[in-house]
């Protein structure tokens, strides 16, 4: 049957030429839309390297009338950092709170970023930039950051102190690979390019990290607070992890209401508490990701709908104009099922033949690096999957466009159809 259909397609090549041209153009355009969405989707499902589920960010502010500018480190420690540590200690005692952590530097779901250059000791020619995140020991537990390699099974405060002027550091897989070409680098030492006397020792290598859902993986380093932070009146980012059974829609309101009334530690007060889902939405909106995703989905939906109407109309007209052929086939003894299979197979073969030059065009677009690669690399796997998805979508549209008019034509008596011809 397939051989007879291919012969029929060849004999009708002039009639089918416009249909082939339409199928090729539609296939390429549909593939491009699918490729953009696939890039966004593949970036979205990649692990971020941390778990923000049940995590809240607590914003603590200070009262100007109770704040005094202090110059010496002892005063700052006594009247600023000690009261702030008491505030954080109170957070840990709140029912349902599993852990509390603080950080400075590149923040999760935020435009607040901090970069620094690093190099292997003795090699100042190869400098690698990384996001830096100053954290306390609880940060790893709060965000449940998975480790590829680690010296300590559970990071504690005593493990998070400098030894012989060498700071402990947790590096991401990207930074480890950039510096040493491997991720098995426990105990390796490296230095800060801009502060040559600042040295680090790798105590753990974390899973790949990225700042938000749709970003690419970037090099990261997590290390204890530097001395200059304790000499300034700064407020770190404060995060709390809530136990799953205690996390609900009323937790944030209950927390801020209870803690605001309980905490009277000058000069601090709780300003706000929001879940990380809230900051994710803000980050997506500020980066234009939400609008990009919505626009892409809307554009693709509109395009697919127009493709559906166009192909439906084309195959409908084409099938409807062959009512006489359908009548003859049925008069010669073909059943409705056999006739339907014949026309559906013909449509799929037409699409498959048109998909070959369409695929060649897509390959050239991919090879010329004209695809959207902001969120994900243009790999062979991505190209293969998007081509397959595009072909499946086109197949579904083509089959619907053939089946509806064919079924309608097959319910007409052969004599009546031949009389109309």
TrEMBL record:
Native organism taxonomy: Bacteria, Pseudomonadati, Bacteroidota, Bacteroidia, Bacteroidales
PANTHER family for the chain: ABC TRANSPORTER PERMEASE YTRF, MEMBRANE COMPONENT OF TRANSPORTER-RELATED
Domain of life: Bacteria
Transmembrane segment boundaries: 20-41, 297-319, 340-368, 380-404
Residue ranges occupied by any ABC3 transporter permease C-terminal domain in the UniProt entry: 298-412
Membrane topology recorded in Swiss-Prot or TrEMBL: Multi-pass membrane protein
The keyword DNA-binding is annotated on this UniProt entry: no
Major location (coarse): membrane
The UniProt record lists the keyword Ribosomal protein: no
Full protein name: ABC transporter permease
Domain MacB-like periplasmic core residue range list: 57-253
Protein family membership: Belongs to the ABC-4 integral membrane protein family.
Compartments in which it is found: Cell membrane
């Amino acid at each position: 049957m397939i051989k007879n259909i291919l012969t029929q397609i060849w004999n009708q090549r002039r009639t089918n030429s416009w249909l082939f041209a339409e199928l090729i153009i539609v296939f390429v355009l549909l593939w491009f839309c699918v490729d953009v969405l696939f890039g966004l989707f593949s970036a979205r499902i990649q692990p971020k390297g941390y778990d923000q589920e049940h995590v809240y960010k607590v914003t603590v502010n200070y009262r100007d009338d109770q704040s005094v500018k202090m110059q010496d480190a002892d005063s700052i420690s006594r009247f600023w950092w000690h009261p702030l540590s008491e505030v954080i200690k109170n957070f840990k005692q709140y029912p349902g709170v599993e852990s509390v952590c603080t950080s400075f530097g590149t923040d999760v779901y935020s435009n607040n970023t901090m970069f620094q250059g690093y190099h292997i000791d003795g090699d100042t020619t190869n400098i690698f930039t990384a996001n830096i995140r100053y954290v306390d020991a609880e940060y790893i537990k709060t965000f449940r950051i998975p480790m590829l390699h680690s010296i300590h099974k559970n990071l504690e405060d005593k493990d998070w102190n400098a030894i012989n002027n060498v700071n402990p550091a947790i590096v991401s897989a990207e930074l480890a690979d950039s510096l040493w070409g491997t991720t098995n680098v426990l105990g390796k030492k490296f230095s800060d390019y801009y502060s040559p006397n600042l040295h680090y020792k790798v105590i753990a290598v974390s899973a790949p990290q990225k700042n938000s859902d749709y970003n690419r993986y970037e090099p990261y380093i997590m290390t204890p607070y530097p001395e200059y932070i304790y000499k300034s009146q700064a407020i770190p980012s404060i995060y709390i992890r809530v136990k799953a059974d205690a996390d609900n829609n009323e937790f944030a309101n209950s927390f801020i209401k209870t803690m605001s009334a309980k905490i009277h530690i000058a000069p601090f007060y709780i300003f706000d508490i929001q879940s990380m889902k809230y900051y994710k939405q803000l980050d997506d909106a500020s980066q234009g990701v939400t609008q990009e995703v919505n626009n892409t989905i809307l554009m693709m939906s509109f395009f697919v709908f127009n493709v559906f109407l166009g192909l439906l109309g084309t195959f409908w007209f084409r099938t409807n104009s062959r009512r006489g052929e359908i009548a003859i086939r049925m008069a010669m003894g073909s059943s409705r099922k056999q006739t339907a299979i014949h026309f559906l197979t013909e449509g799929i073969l037409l699409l498959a033949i048109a998909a070959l030059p369409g695929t060649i065009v897509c390959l050239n677009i991919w090879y010329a690096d004209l695809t959207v690669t902001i969120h994900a690399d243009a790999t062979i796997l991505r190209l293969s999957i998007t081509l397959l998805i595009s072909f499946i979508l086109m197949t579904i549209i083509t089959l619907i466009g053939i089946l509806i008019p064919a079924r309608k034509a097959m319910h007409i008596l052969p004599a009546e159809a031949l009389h109309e011809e």
